[in-house]
Write a structure and sequence with these properties.
It is a single chain. The protein has 258 residues and is α+β, with helices and mostly antiparallel strands. The chain has 2 domains: 5-157, Phosphorylase Kinase, domain 1; 159-255, Transferase(Phosphotransferase), domain 1, CATH 1.10.510.10. The chain has helices at residues 19-24, 26-35, 38-49, 91-99, 111-131, 170-186, 222-239, 247-255, and strands spanning 55-62, 66-72, 78-84, 139-143, 146-150, 153-154, 157-158, 190-191, 200-202, 206-208, 215-216. Strands 1-2-3-5-4 form a 5-stranded antiparallel beta sheet, sandwiched between helices. A two-stranded antiparallel ribbon has the order 6-7. A two-stranded antiparallel ribbon has the order 8-11. Helix 6 crosses helix 8 and helix 7 crosses helix 8 (247-255). It is globular and about 50 Å long. It binds adenosine-5'-diphosphate and magnesium ion. Adenosine-5'-diphosphate is lined by residues 60-61, 63, 65-66, 68, 80, 137, 149-153, 158, 161, 199, 209-210.
């Protein structure tokens, strides 16, 4: 892929992402092509024009469906830019999860539309979580397959995932997390649906990330998702030596029936 001269600056400048290297390194070129297709570059370009992104930094994470980059916005603050891949994502699986959510019931089974809806769902979920006071990244901007959110970390380095740096006081962290799940359920009317030690950052207080599966509580799947979230957390915290009530008890606490 030859990028137009004025779009080259959008390439992440972290290690291994130098434009000169891309010409030589076909593997790296493939990665870049998969993420930065021409439509995505134009979306980033518009985001630069409105100041949500000013300078692109390096890659933070490469996931199954999305890549996360750090960037600076016009105010000079770090932001996290999550770019969902259009060409190589498992959109059939994404579609299944989307239509389980009443908000996206009518979505067409079209690759591009599904991936765009996925990014918009994460954005809307982050907004709702934020309004409810859940500790999560502030939603800043989104368009098509690109989401811009507050960067959770220090000087462009994300806070560690709970999986990588286990909490010092597991019981206290568990209580705080349960409170976040409760706020999310009762105030934001959402179930995270992908909650585990992989999607919690410790600052050292727990912060929830990765809201792309977040589902409205009115979904017929909501209870099953909530049960799964709670049992993931129970499993992790039991391994950390915390004493944790049963999933049934936790469910009652979150729903306010306890
Ligand atoms: N808002 C954020 N601030 C800082 N780092 C983030 C942010 N969102 C994601 N990350 C980093 O990117 C990684 C992957 O993000 P996540 O949303 O979980 O995507 P995936 O769908 O690939 O699991 C996280 O583990 C974290 O290190
Ligand atoms: Mg994740």
């Amino acid at each position: 892929m030859r990028l137009p001269e004025d779009l080259q600056e959008f390439l992440p400048k972290g290690e291994g992402w130098k434009y000169e290297r891309l010409e030589k390194d076909s593997e790296m070129r493939k990665v870049v092509e998969r993420v930065f297709d021409s439509s995505t570059l134009l979306t980033l370009y518009r985001m630069v024009n409105r100041g949500s992104i000013d300078r692109f930094g390096g890659a933070v994470s490469t996931g199954k469906e999305a890549h996360v980059f750090r960037a600076l916005n016009r105010e000079g603050e770090y932001v996290a830019v999550k770019i969902y891949r259009v060409a190589t994502s498992d959109f059939k699986n994404m579609y299944r999860y989307l239509v389980a959510d009443p908000r996206f019931r009518g979505i067409h089974r079209d690759r591009r539309q599904v991936v765009y809806a996925w990014a918009s769902r994460e954005y809307k979920n982050l907004q709702r979580a934020g309004e409810a006071g859940v500790s999560s990244p502030r939603a800043l901007d989104y368009e098509k397959n690109v989401l811009v959110m507050e960067f959770l970390g220090k000087e462009g380095l994300p806070y560690p995932r709970m999986k990588d740096v286990p909490p010092k006081d597991p019981e206290r962290t568990f209580r705080k997390l349960l409170r976040e799940v409760e706020l999310l359920y009762r105030e934001a009317r959402l179930v995270h649906a992908d909650l585990s030690e992989y999607n919690v950052l410790l600052s050292p207080d727990p912060l929830l990330i990765d809201f792309s599966l977040g589902t409205d509580v009115s979904s017929p799947m909501a209870e099953e998702f909530l049960r799964r979230d709670l049992s993931n957390l129970s499993r992790f915290f039991r391994k950390q030596g915390a004493s944790v009530p049963s999933v049934e008890e936790l469910l009652a606490v979150v729903k306010g029936e306890g």
